[in-house]
User: Fold this.
Amino acid sequence: MQGEESVENREVINDVLVHLFNEIMELEEQAIITEEYKDITNNDMHIIAAVGLGGNKMSDIAAKLNITVGSLTTSMNSLVKKGYAVRERSEQDRRVVFIHLTVKGRKAYHHHAEFHRKMTDAVMGALSEEEIPVLTKALEGLTGFFRQYEKKTL
Assistant:
């Protein structure tokens, strides 16, 4: 009986993980890409989040997003053109490009962060104080799996 229960739990966990990722991406896009932000994509919102309120170097933003600087450049060109971000070359090293959010970009950043705050609050609100560390440990384990898996496939 214990073996059957373990298989059943494994199937439930697998089903939840597989569907949860897709549901989060779909719902996040619906929640974030409102009428005000219809000129950008959900991917653009994640780039804005990676830029951060203090700004960041192109290379650091690309590293956060696990993409090349070349790939980021295409998206960043669009965000600059649409008024969400500005470029600034380093005075010390002209090869280094800093990205800063404009007022419009900062507003989008806060809009995106608010969605994630609500999502996290909903999860934590459904758990007892004792359950939160258990979920945290499980999610850290899942994150570790994906990071190791990614390294093995590169």
